[in-house]
Amino acid sequence: MAKARTLVVDHRRERNRWRAPADARRTRARSVTRTDESRLKPVMDFGANPGALDMLAYAPRRLKSGSPLVVVLHGCSQDALGYDASSGWSRLADELGFAVVFPEQRRANNPGGCFNWFLPADSARGLGEIRSIREMVEHMATTHRIDRGRMFVTGLSAGGAMTSALLADYPDVFSAGAVIAGLPCGAASSVQEAFRAMSDPRPQPQEKLGDMVRAASQHEGPWPRTLVLHGTADETVAPGNADAIVSQWLDVHGLSLGEAREDAVDGQRRRSWTQDGRTLVQQIMIAEMGHGAPLDAGLGERKAPFMLDVGLSSTRRIADFFGIEGALPKRPSGASAARGQSPSRPAPSPAPEAGEPEAPLSWPFVTRCGSALGRMLRGFGLTR
Known about the structure:
The chain is α/β, with parallel strands linked by helices. The protein has helices at about 1-15, 20-35, 80-85, 90-95, 120-125, 130-145, 160-170, 190-200, 205-215, 240-255, 315-320, 335-340, 370-380; strands at about 40, 55-60, 70-75, 100-105, 150-155, 175-180, 225-230, 260-265, 270-275, 280-285, 295, 305-310. The strands form 2 sheets. It has a 10-stranded mixed β-sheet, with helices on both faces. It has a two-stranded parallel ribbon with strand order 11-12.
């Protein structure tokens, strides 16, 4: 236990070296300005904020008591407004009547804008960024009389890895979650381990993966349902991580890999594991898609770096998995059939489009690497 405390303190010291109060104030000021034309609005005083995160949120004007809440976590080099503009989460909230909260990372905490999913001081229950997000959830639940049985979380990349941590740390808070191009809970506790887990996840016994979830809290069930989405051509976070997340939650739910029911959705492979007629774990692998969130521009979602138009809306598929009624749009029968016949539709590469510069990323512990290695590290804010 003493060793664990020392590790947490050491990580906090490293993070504090990169904290700049003046920068944080400027970030908050920019957030207020940038939200003038967005549904998302900043919330300044939401409770304890040991992770020094910003909070942006939206609740429809006439939100009914007992409505759902969705927490959305952006990826590296992204921010809340950009992720929302592409994914359409606040538009869907307006359409279907639920609230959304977007935690936003400050560059003072992580120069790449990544949530620090690989630092125990930020990813363990009650600590750092995880605690800040929990406080945001409580603020929304109290302020908007949210149904505490319908609070959900989703995230992309580093936000996906943090989603895995939140589901493990707070299974008593979140009833379901969706991880996009992320990693399982417990995949890393240092920068070096994070790099290894991203690029070359080592197969682990299913029980060991499940134990990482069970060790994160004193919860004994019921456990959150989990949806995993990942591109088969992801060169930033190896697709093997998607399989590890599935194995982790299958073990927690007491299910086996061989119990899967397989079908296709929007032309992509889907596997589902059910119990008593209820889907507990589901995986959608998007053929030929690189690193990013799958979107459907035909539904008004906007292509951007790491936001990839592949004809499948992760936003609506996730909302449907969460049980939010009306999430899936009704398509003409011809359009649905056409999508179902194209399982290998080409997808954009994970790199930003030409003419769209990547945000500068850096990390104090890792040196500059070669091209393939560097792309992987830059993707999670681990190098410049």
